[in-house]
Amino acid sequence: MVRQLFNQREAGIILKTPISFLNSKDKLLWQGTKDDSFSVRSAYHKEIERTHFQSSQASSSSSFTAVWKQLWQLKVQPGVLLWRSCLEALPTNSNLYKRRLVENPLCPICYLEAEDSAHALWRCESAKDVWSQCSKSLQKCHQPHVTMIQLLEDLLQAMDSRIIQEFAVVARKIWWRRNKFLFEGTFAHPNAVVREARGTLDLLIEEESRLGRGQTNTQVEDWQAPPSNWIKLNWDSAVDKANGVIGVGVAVRDSLGYTIATKKTNKLLFPNPLLAKAFGALKAVQFGVELGLSQVVVEGDSLQVINILRSDKEGCNS
Ligand SMILES: [Zn+2]
Question: Where does the Reverse transcriptase zinc-binding domain start and stop, copy by copy (predicted)?
Answer without folding.
Answer: 38-131
